[in-house]
Amino acid sequence: MGLSKPAAGPLLEIDRLSVDIRGEHGVARVVDEVSFAVGPRETVALVGESGSGKSVTSMSVLGLLPPRITRTRGSVRFEGRELLGLRSGELDRVRGDDIAMIFQEPMTSLNPAFTIGEQIAEQVRCHRGVSRKAARDRAVEVLDLVGVPSAAERLKAYPHEFSGGMRQRVMMAMALSCEPKLLIADEPTTALDVTIQALVLSELRALQERFGMSVLFITHDLGVVAEIADRVVVMYGGHLVETGRTAEVFAAPQHPYTEALLRSVPQGDTTGSRLWSIPGAIPTPEAMPDGCRFHPRCPHAKPGVCDADEPPLEPIGDGRSSRCVRREELRLSGIGGDAGGTGALAAEPLGGSVLPGGDRK
Amino acid sequence: MLRLLARRLLMSVPILVIVTFVVFFLLEIAPGDPARLAAGGQAASAADVAEARHRLGLDEPLWTRYWHFIEGLFTGDLGQSIFSGQPVLSAIAERAPVSLSLMAGALIVAMLIALPAGIIAATRPGGIADRVVMLISAGGVAMPNFLIGLLLVLVFALNLQIFPATGYVPFEQSPARWFQSLVLPSVALGVAAAAEIARFLRASMLDVLDQDYIRTARAKGIGVRGVVGKHAMKNAFAPVLTVLGLQVRILLGGTVVIEQIFNLPGLGSLTVKAVFDRDYPIIQGVAISAALVVVVANILVDVAYGYLNPKLRAA
Amino acid sequence: MSLRERVVAPMAVVVAAASLAACGGGGADPAGEAGPISASAAPGDLDTSATLTFADPFQNDTIDPAKNDSGFPTRQLNLVYDRLIGISPSGELVPQLATKWEFANPTTLRLTLRSGVKFQDGAPFDAAAVVKNLDRSREMPDAGPAVSAPAASIKDMKASGTDVVEITLKKPRYSILYDLAQNLGMMISPGSLSGSLDRAAVGAGMYKLVEFKPGVSATYKRWDGYWDAGAVKLAGFVVKSIPDAQTRINALQSGQVTMSLIDESQVDDAKGAGVRVSEKATVSAWTMFLNMTRGGLKNEQVRQALSYAIDRKSLVETLGHGHGEPTVQMFPSTYEAYSKDWPATKYPFDAAKAKELLAGAGYGNGAKFSALILNRPLDKQLGQALQRMVKPAGITLELKVVEPARYSMFTDGEVDMFLGRWGGRADPADTLNSNAGKGGFINPGSGTTPEFQTLMDKIETTPTGDARTKLVQEASALFAQQQLDIPVFARRSIFADNGCVVGFTPYMVGADEYRGVGVRKNCG
């Protein structure tokens, strides 16, 4: 199957996805009625702190959650076809072929007992049915593509012979080997240091351009989001709290959580100063507060309003939505573009460039 | 890989030397007088016994005898059986194929049972299959191999008459009957090993299936066979190898009983007879051969480890 | 369903199936209906191409007559080596390679050889061959006692023509006839005498050796040149060494052997499985061997007390599973040397009488004896049973269990008695002498009584024949009266076969021969 054709509708549609996981203390709902879509050639960033349910959401697309303790409800449609409830034989045809996934821990995500050549080639052989030699050639091709030097010799190398950044590139090569239409990247740069991170991200952008594929990028780092995402979807405590185009969301966030996340992005040179982080922690699924899930940590929380009923996700036009009932009263401050107005946040001069790579507008 | 092999071979030498030491001196301190037995046991006169002692060289000083013994090992002269006069090396060479066939058969049976059992138990932990596997494996380890052997004979040889109850047919004589004569003994000997291996494999698999690279493999869409059979197995198999190495030793000991029950003319029955006869040269020869088998098995395990885990090769 | 329910039901089915399988073959005794094993069959009914496979508990290491004991190990030897003198199933001397024997004087034996006999390699059997054989036995350095002891008593041999051999003894030894009926008399072809006879055998016997695997098996095939062609009724003979009793019977039941020796404990199972069982009395007996030079055992009353204190019938039931004969002599009642004057009923089980006798001998407070037992299951069973039995009579037995190799503790005089099995001898006088005569190898300290020794001396100088037999019976009677050892019960040899064997008569003494033994056609 060659380059993806522009689809009539969204490539990936997640509709009211809920995931219950059975743990020591009983069943917990870690993803609660999440809905969003990824269009063709689009990069969507799924953002939130750890514990927000973003990884679980991404893994449920390819059915990678442990079956015995997980119950998934709702719908995940790829090119109009329902993926949830597919038999594993059917799902295997999608995995690695139409939809590929790369993971956060490059050190442990590759099998130490096989050469990287073998690990890439087997995927090609599996989905394309070509000869061993053809598969090997393809492996060299994709390794070259992701910038692994001396690809042909390196085929026979084992994962432990590569550095973390290189391994992540190998993972990407593996994911791209069958030209997927959608790449799900679960925090692929989190475990890498900043300079490598930048390189990997730029590679990813280049490859995306070249293959015309969509990317669902999961991260907690808004700096990365600014680099590569067209649209952003923010999750908190299993809920979606805000969606919208990146530029708009960054300029004028419509939810205090998004505002807080933006605030914790380091601006310019931060050596010597303390990085700001959101006080408190995400509550566990068993201990969700009444009303808005974020209100205990929210600087704008209003008693009687925010702690009573759970606010619904409201669409606010043009692909934007928010779950904050007070959003119109609050003028939340973003970064880049207009620094917003009278928010209760003490003003620290915000503005200037976001990342060494330059602004993305 | 070659360096690994060479290193292991070198390490085996001191082990074998110690074995010859222990074998030789243990027999020295065991009660019973081989000279008397060689002279005819109960009815022998004192003169006969003294003559036998001289003939067998048992009246020489200890260290001289030990030295002769070591010399003999190098020239391949392990002495002669006190009773049959047959050279020890030839007696062992005659019987070794039987025992080795039996042990190989037992290992094959063990793997045929343990691999699927361990995998099924690990891929559905807590389910019925898992519980059944664990139950049977506990039973398999607990039941003595001779009991299993006798039950097998009862059902399959005496009642169903599918397999012979006793006897060994050499491969050269008839491959089909050779195989038939080894089925029941191999199962009897291999069941306990199967149980052990299944348990280890299950534990090892459970561990491996939790790893990140398994998640990656699943995400690649290569199917259950690829994920479990290839990716998981190669990593999970290493602890099983250790168990296999240990089992070789246990299987070797088990041949003693199994060969008696099934009347197989192997090293096990040779040993039993030699011990009761106090046929020292045979006992020594068998002990050293057994040690050799175990050492070789362990070297093979180490080499296999190197294959499974590439990081070890560089070391 | 709970886990238990899930598992128990199927398991129960498996166990039930296995038990049902075990019950297979019960009821009728089809093999037994074939008639006794000693019955003969018309020549037309025999399968002349059959091979008889025998499961033997004994393992021969070598097939050299000089290196084997006499008795059980000779089963294989008898097939290939004929002897100068033969033994009948009831223990009498009969002609074999020698047709006539007589003592020209007490130290000179003249043998007349059968003419026209050849060895299996074609060499003629003659006096010269006999002399060469006896020479080998005398000169061989590592010859076993079965051959070296009697060979040592020969002073000289002479061949007189081709058919007569004259053997001169150092002193009178009439029992040499029995020796020539066993290993010493096994005739080996002169051409093979200089080579190794551990795995090769060339004799003048019924069957030729094809292959010998020490401790495992021996394969023979019929030899058409045998001097008594009518005795060879099988095409082949295989002896398989199977020490384990259960394995032997399994082999029989699954058709891998034609015939086997089984233990007393297996008789009921064998019959239940439809196998034919044949029993015969033997000269082997469970015995309390005494060291008469120690303590109370010097006293005849004490020994007799011991004999009254044991319940022989009960031991036959338990240790022998009902197969055996209580005896107070070293022989069963059907044996020639048995004295009818001393049946076992002369020493009934009577603890009170035992106590009385002990008191009379000065042991009113009871007597204590140390007893050696070999570390084997049946021996231990005997020892423990005897220990229990004699307690009410005030007798205490201190049991010492040792490995067979340490049996010499008894012969070295370290313990009072040895509780074990007497294997039997071809010459009954040998039995009596070894156990209770001066210099007897299992008579430590040469403890004996003057009357008994007188008899033994007389027997030594009496040629074989009725007179000697009578003397032996008298000696056996005296033995019983004085309880020089305390026999418990005489054992049986028990054979199991699938009903196809004909013409086989088990031997009372030593290992059986297979003259005239065949296998029925279309059988089993």
UniProtKB/TrEMBL annotation, chain A:
Gene3D superfamilies: P-loop containing nucleotide triphosphate hydrolases. Residues 333-361 are annotated as: Disordered. It is found in: Cell membrane. One of its GO terms (molecular function) is ATP binding. SMART domains: AAA. PROSITE patterns: ABC_TRANSPORTER_1, ABC_TRANSPORTER_2. InterPro entries: AAA+_ATPase, ABC_Ni/Peptide_Import, ABC_transporter-like_ATP-bd, ABC_transporter-like_CS, Oligopep_ABC_C, P-loop_NTPase. Belongs to the ABC transporter superfamily. This is ABC transporter ATP-binding protein. The lineage of its organism: Bacteria, Bacillati, Actinomycetota, Actinomycetes, Streptosporangiales.
TrEMBL record, chain B:
Gene3D superfamilies: MetI-like (1.10.3720.10). Keywords: Cell membrane, Membrane, Transmembrane, Transmembrane helix, Transport. It is a multi-pass membrane protein. It is found in: Cell membrane. One of its GO terms (molecular function) is dipeptide transmembrane transporter activity. Belongs to the binding-protein-dependent transport system permease family. This is ABC transporter permease. The lineage of its organism: Bacteria, Bacillati, Actinomycetota, Actinomycetes, Streptosporangiales.
